Amino acid sequence: MHAVLFYILATLAVVGGLLMVSLKNPLSGAFALILSLCSLAALFAMLHAEFLFILQILVYAGAIMVLIIFTIMLLNLKKEELQEAPVGWIRLLLTATLCAVGAFGAIQVFGDVVPANVEMTTDFGNIESVGRVMLSDFVYPFEVISLILLVAVVGVVLLAKRII
Amino acid sequence: MPTRTHGRRNVPNWLDFVIIGGKAVFIWGFALTLLPVLIWFERKGSAFIQDRAGPNRAAILGIRLAGFIHNIADVVKLLMKEMMIPPHVNRAYFMIAPVLGFTFILSAFAVIPWADTLRVAGRDITMQVADLNAGILFILAITSLNVYGIVLAGWSSNNKFALMGGLRSTAQMISYEIPLGLALVGIFMVYGSAQLNEIVRGQGELLFGFLPKWGLFVQPLGAILFIVAAFAETNRNPFDLPEGESEIVAGYHVEYSGMRFALFYMGEYVAIVLSSAMITTLFFGGWQVPYFPTERIVATADTWLKVMLSVGGVGALAFAALMLFWAKRMKDGGGFGDLRDKEGIILGVAHIAIGGAMLFFLWKTLSMGPMPEWGARTVAAVAQITSFALKTIFWCWVFIWVRWSLPRFRYDQLMRLGWKKMIPLSFVNIFLTGLVILWMGR
């Protein structure tokens, strides 16, 4: 049962990603990405990582994708304006090979980062354990990232103001 | 660590599935049966506020039930209507949009608790479909997905007004999700959990010995912010800019007709029920009966059963007497001259039957010995469900009340309220809560 669900969800995630890059209509592409993100969230749910599952939906599918779709709708592209960008088989094959080689290489080099056959703790991915990790072991990276995001937000506002 | 149903439990048997299914049917049934009641509230309530009579014409064999039959007429009309698909729309998205909106909002009910854990036949049944560790955040996640129904409807309709409605609702929901989420932080800090059942349990204690420790009393600012943001999330007046009839016709559902339109309409009311249930659960004690925590109800279950039955029975009889008196006055004064004069008699007789049955059971319980443990727990659960339902229905009424009392915001006012007033205020709320908790030395 778990294995079947895993393969279905994993396939959906990959298919969503592929559709995202191959569909011509930008809105369809965005929805394919949402499909992919939701399948990933469901994979977290299968690990009983409830908090990660909810965050995945809340932040990625619920907030970031809404903003992307908001932008797409504001641009409101007509069919004629969408340029023909045929996905050539050679390009696709080349990209796939590069990705596969890259992933394989990464696993070979950094494979020992994730030990195989970990026994999951009961509090894996729930709100307490994520919060504890974020505010103890990784508190400095966490703060630095929030600072970087703040700088990005201020920068965007500044740039947009100058243009308007 | 509270009960965390985990993967390594023994394999669930068929009874677990039946219980889960029954719970899902219960909460969906609660939400969906409230729909016609709310539509009736809306019509009669708006009529009451505007000093009109309200709808009172639709009838089955002359029975009108003060406009309640209009709901049935509505449903029949909507089912009969053609579901138009205009030629210029994006068909696939156009058809899936209303379904998305309605499905997401219904699935959010999974984490709403409606009574304390019921211990029956050696089983602990949590009165909640899914006891998630990050419960309340699940509702936020699902309501954030709910935007897609509206956005897709607006975009696929290929219509300027619909697109404007979709854009407005996206901007509005994203903006008000922030104060909504930040208002929750105070609740997390006070009750020390994000699990809805734990939050409700925390509200069963007393504050200073006489005030129930409801979210409203420990988080007054948070409660106001949350309620305002919840109004904005449901796209109700004064935040109904996505529909804005006077500006953009009907917004995102301008091209829809028939049952597809009805799905949007129903989705709006289900969202009201969800928001009311959330407000009740977080700030008004959820299923807690004030001053009576579960164990106290269980200990005095015999009295509770008798009091509930007698209150119900006497109430039904009093209503019956009122109806019969009204019917008699109608008859004496000439009345409407049609079958409406008989309604009082029908309702009166029906309520005499209900009240009589309740009093009969009361008489039966008098000759009964003390209740077994499971009976006492069931009585407690019934009392708590009643408490939860009454509070939720009250908040549903507030939603309608506000809609017919306040005018719509202007768009810049809406954005200014959300970003420049509510978000700073919710930070102030978190800061003050932290200070108080530090000062109380918890």
Overview of this structure, please?
The complex is a heterodimer of chains A (164) and B (442). With 164 residues, chain A is mostly helical. Chain A has six helices and no strands. In chain A, helix 1 (2-22) packs antiparallel against helix 2 and helix 2 (26-46) packs antiparallel against helix 3 (50-75). The longest helix of chain A has 26 residues, at 50-75. Chain A is globular and about 55 Å long. The mean pLDDT of chain A is 82. Chain B is mainly alpha-helical and 442 residues long. Chain B has two domains: 14-288 and 376-440, no CATH class; 309-368. Chain B contains 16 helices and four strands. Chain B has a two-stranded antiparallel sheet. In chain B, helix 6 runs antiparallel to helix 9 (220-233) and helix 9 packs antiparallel against helix 16. Chain B is globular and about 70 Å long.
What is the β-strand count of chain B? 4
Proportion of residues in extended strands of chain B: under 5%
Portion of residues within helices of chain A: over 70%
* End-to-end Cα distance of chain A: 55 Å
Low-confidence stretches of chain B: 1-8
Largest inter-chain interface? A-B, 23 and 29 residues
Task: Explain briefly what this protein structure is.
By secondary structure, chain A is mainly alpha-helical.
Draw up the topology in text.
The complex is a heterodimer of chains A (164) and B (442).
Chain A: H1 2-22, H2 26-46, H3 50-75, H4 89-110, H5 127-135, H6 139-163
Chain B: H1 14-49, H2 69-80, H3 91-107, E1 115-120, E2 123-127, H4 135-145, H5 147-156, H6 160-191, H7 196-202, E3 206-207, E4 211-212, H8 215-218, H9 220-233, H10 245-248, H11 258-283, H12 294-299, H13 301-332, H14 340-366, H15 373-403, H16 411-440
Antiparallel strand pairs in B: 1-2, 3-4
Helix pairs in contact in B: 1-11, 1-15, 2-11, 3-5, 3-11, 5-6, 6-9, 6-16, 9-11, 9-16, 11-15, 13-14, 13-15
Key features of this structure:
heterodimer; A: 164 residues; mainly alpha; Four Helix Bundle (Hemerythrin (Met), subunit A); 2 domains; 6 helices; 76% helix; 0% strand; B: 442 residues; two-stranded antiparallel sheet; two-stranded antiparallel ribbon; 16 helices; 4 strands; 3% strand; globular; disordered N terminus
